[in-house]
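Usage

Read records sequentially. Each one opens with the input sequence:
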Amino acid sequence: METAVNGPVFRQAVDVEGLVTADSSPGLRVVRITSSSEHAHSHIYMEAPVFTPDGGRFIFQRVDPVPPDTNMQNRWREYWLCDLEDNFALRQLTDEPGAIAPCVTPDGRFMYYFITELDPRKRCGIRLKRVCLTSFTRETVMVLDRALSGLDAPPSRVYSLSTVRSDSAAVSTGVFIGDGERNGTWGVLVCDVERGSADVVLAGPNYFNPHPQYSRSSDPKHCHDLLVQHNTGADTDPLGGLTNRRSGCTVEVIRDDGSDFREIPCGSATETCHGHQEWRGTSATTLIGVNHTFPDGTVTRPVIEAAPVPAVQADDTPPALLPKAETSRNDITRELDGPAFGHTAIDSTGTRFVGDWRAVGEGAEATRLFVGTLPAVPDAALSVRYVLHPRSSYTGDQVVHPHPFLSPDGTKAFFNSDFGGLPQIWMVDGVGDLF
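and closes with the structure output:
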């Protein structure tokens, strides 16, 4: 057992004006939770499991103010805990080099995270660790320093996001599999923390940005399902570096034992998945952000609710044209004029929605934050309310993308912004009255 990080508890939260506009609803409170002039901070990601179940605490990251490159895996980071009920108290959870891919267990007891090695030539593998969110002590749960079954090199270069099963018994993330001398591949890793075993359940050259997400359901029929992003393509060098990265992806579902492969029926000649998707609450359907291109070249960004359909790996059939595709999808934004959602999230009930809105070709100054209600009925249509302008520079650096998400009770929305200085984490309270 390792000791807790020995550091003080900080409080930096300040109320800020300037993001709420004349079109915002009255009664909103905007708080910049971190206010350091020396460190950049950001939320983990929209779909990342960051909250304790009571909604009182969540994890976030402190990162390099200026990233070494566009690869988030190369970025120095620490993970911190924010206690909303203790006047936004901030406590450091990790200080180890290579810490990455955190997730909070559904029972709120632990934060799991990995220690990664960026150079596969060292062949030293990776470690899965956890920190207790009561005592803040840390322990190593699993060491993966050898090649896993069917593979020729130990995992390295852990992906920046992870996910945890609803029973807290398994954690999944993405990894690079290579020896640093020959071209390697990418895989979706599943660590069974109860059995002490690990396997790569999907592997291929285009799983470098997998966004793995366990179903939020506790039903045994669904809780083993993993939602996985399969990118269109890139060139990978022997060290795991990416070049010539192409836009677009397909979205897949697989059981965490590697069985029952399916695809989400989104993607065709006129429809491109842009890489922002999540399970709709605890249901067996998903919400998929797409770019839809019309014959005149106009592009909208609707959100499609879709259920997984049977598919064959490596089949080139566009997912939207698979058998059963047409009856397995619903455009929840069909009643909105020119939908333009980028990053989206939905709560565990599957009815409270948040997203940032910016049309293709517009600048950062056009970005707006909306919340919405999605009724729990078949063929539901989303209704939305404007919240505020996040006023972030929204460059290529991920930490200045808004990446909005909701508190478990839906009363608060969280987002990133570098308004007024370095990237920081923000909260807007009072959005519960807008649903």
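Summary fields computed downstream for this record:
- Residues 93-260 form a domain with the Methylamine Dehydrogenase; Chain H fold (CATH 2.130.10.10).
- The two ends are 45 Å apart (CA to CA).
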